[in-house]
Structures are given as structure tokens and as C-alpha cells.
What does this fold into?
Amino acid sequence: MVETLPAQRTQREPKYWALKQHLLDLLESLPAGSAIPTERSLATEFTVSRTTVRQALADLTAESRLHRVQGKGTFAAEPKLAQRLQLSSYTEDIRAQGREPSSRLLEIDEVVAEGELPRLLGLRTGAKVLRVRRLRLADDEPMALESSHLPLARFRGVRRQVEEGGSLYEALRERYGVELDRAEETIETSLAGPQEAELLGADVGMPVLLLARQTFAADGKPVEYVRSIYRGDRYKFVTTLTRPSRR
It folds into this structure.
């Protein structure tokens, strides 16, 4: 039996869009990892061209609803991790999802504060900054690339803690008496370059989320500036919004 797309869709929408909506309905009932029909099967079933099918599949892949494996087929993607926007560590966030966090130290070095870093860390231009680059994982799956910057003079000795795999936030609290109070964070979208794609185990050009966070201690002084690149196919961020108080 040949199935056709619903008339209300085919009359008002491009064929690939109507097919995409039908596939979205199908994905609602499929567990992650399930194979979906081949391009030829979909083209025959819905009496559309394979070009139309490819466009619908490309959209759903870009939106991280499908996962395509060269030579094997197309599969329903794993659901994204829904991470709340709050002042917490990566370790705390991943454990809250019921997964096991880990990190791979990529680089740790001392750099000169220049550009925006002096303002972001409350330093004079030319002061030393400790830069820590880590690959963040959940259940051994690469999730994010993170570059942390801290005032070196204020946190001498923290380098060893990080090199030994200890928690940075735990070291700031227990060794230096720093209680994190608030942060200002921005989120943008971008595409993974060759280096980011290789480290994250993703394709070049995959959508990623760019996070930049300036964190302040209870005394009002900035203590850390972090830039992170998260896989757009594995992450979404959740926050609670409230109306501002009226005066």
C-alpha cells in the first residue's frame, strides 16, 4: 500500500517539509538508536523524490533528531542532556543527570593577561593568568571543550591540584576559601572547526554552543573566566524565568 502525505500538508507546505513533520511524528514513538526506513523506502512510501527525502533527513540531522552513520543507515538520535543554567560545576551538572563525569587535561599553562582578560579577571594588563584546557566527558562520551582562566597570583598552587585531576571549584573553596556567589554567562551558536570536531568526536561543521562565563566570589571580585564549546547535538540548556518586580 502506497501512503501519501496528508492533503492539508501537501497543499500548503513544500513536500520535504511535510515529510519532515511526518518523520517527527514517527520519531516520537521510536526509542533512541532505532533505524528509520531507507531513502528509497521513504520515497516510495510517500510518493516523493529521493531529493525531497534527503532534504528532510538533512534537516532532522542538523537538528540532532537523527544520527546518520556512513554505510549503515540513519537512526533516531539519543535525547539531549537538559542542563539547568546555574552556578555549578560540570561534575555536579553531569552527576545530576545520572551520568558519570570525567575530564581529560589537554593543556595547562601560564599566559599573559591581554585583550579582554584584564577586565574580566580584574587584573592589570600583562599580569599572569593560569589557563586550563580540558575535554569534558559523560560516561566516556566527549561533551564539551572548556578553557578556564584564573588569576595566577591569587591562586598559586592550584595548578598541581588540577594536574592531579582534582576539582577546581573544590580547590578554590577548600584551599583558598573562595565561595562562588554569582556569574554572568552568554550563550551563542557556532559550527565546529576541524580541531574541535576531532576532540569532540563530531563532524566538521556540526552546530555547537559557545558559552562564556565570568564568575565572581562573595567578595565581589572575579575569580574565573571560562569559555566552553558544547556539542549542539547532545546538549540543551534549561532555565527558570520570573517576571521582574514592579516598583
About this structure: DSSP finds nine helices and ten strands in the chain. The domain at 81-238 is CATH 3.40.1410.10 (Chorismate lyase). The radius of gyration is 23 Å. The first strand starts at residue 66 and ends at 69.
